[in-house]
Specification:
By secondary structure, the chain is mainly alpha-helical. The chain has helices spanning about 5-30, 35-45, 70-85, 95-125, 140-165, 180-195, 200-230, 245-270; strands spanning about 60, 60-65, 90-95, 170-175. It has one domain (about 5-270).
Length: about 280
């Protein structure tokens, strides 16, 4: 009870501070990011992805903002979050055990293909010094895309109900994904994957945007939830309009994280492309 008189004053400060901080963080990120719309997306991918040219899809000679695996992961996560927002709304339970089992398979496929691909990268970069390292198979961008998108679905399938459990005062106590909606979601992602493999710019341009914005969206959501818990406002929201402040805070923190990693990596490597010497 003693803290109640200070809360309105504190929140009034936050209502001004958070938007201003978001604008400053966005302006700083826009300033350091490469020129052009795709250049800004590159700066997002640069913070989370190795961006090795050979392991990425291209629009003509122009590399996408994320590698093939991260493209699949984050565009699938973005699609899955938007899909659940429309279909599941405030459903707050995790999927059934059967769906969880499928998600675990997605995770294992991601881990196995990623590990195999990393070992292959070590062999390629060692100039013959590590040829004795075994590989299950020769990795390729098709497998990276599909295993990455499976991981993206798994991330979103777990994150969405957790977000609902954390934010809302009253929730819908049903699984966020059931078999029908899960099947539709997987079919949608597979369809986009097949379109990506056509290498058509008509497909790759929107996928580039969705994957980069999906990356940023995941970061914003995670930081918004963290902010909500720190402010002890979990399970207090009743209207989506009340989420403006926590999500602005999440955006600010996400942009600051991206900005910090970008500056550190740029200082370390001197290039916005993939890590030098890897390919």
């Amino acid at each position: 009870m003693e803290t109640q008189p200070t809360r309105p004053f504190f929140y009034n400060i936050l209502r001004w501070f958070v938007p201003v901080a978001a604008i400053i963080a966005f302006a700083a990120w826009m300033y350091i990011a490469p020129e052009g719309a795709l250049g800004k997306l590159d700066a997002v991918g640069y913070a989370v992805c190795h961006r090795i040219d050979e392991r990425s899809f291209h629009i003509d000679d122009r590399q996408l903002p994320l590698c093939a695996r991260c493209t699949g992961e984050f565009f699938a996560a973005g699609i899955a979050l938007v899909f659940q927002a429309f279909v599941s709304r405030k459903r707050s339970r995790l999927p059934s055990r059967g769906i969880i089992a499928v998600l675990i398979l997605f995770f294992l496929a991601f881990g196995i293909d990623g590990s195999n691909s990393y070992l292959y990268l070590l062999k390629q970069s060692s100039q013959g010094g590590l040829d004795q390292i075994p590989n299950l198979y020769v990795p390729n961008n098709i497998l990276r895309l599909f295993t990455g998108s499976g991981m993206g679905i798994a991330l979103a399938a777990v994150l969405f109900p957790v977000v609902n459990q954390t934010l809302w005062r009253e929730v819908d106590d049903r699984p966020a994904l059931e078999w029908k909606s899960f099947g539709i979601l997987v079919a949608m992602v597979i369809g986009v994957n097949l379109l990506v493999l056509t290498d058509s710019p008509i497909i790759l341009y929107p996928v580039a945007y969705i994957s980069a914005l999906g990356t940023l969206s995941l970061l914003v959501i995670v930081f918004a939830i963290l902010w909500t818990m720190i402010m002890r406002e979990d399970n207090t929201y009743t209207d989506p309009r009340q989420l403006i402040l926590p999500f602005l805070a999440g955006l600010t923190l996400a942009l600051l994280m991206v900005l910090s990693i970008d500056l550190f990596r740029l200082q370390l490597t001197g290039t916005w492309s993939g890590f030098p010497g890897l390919g």
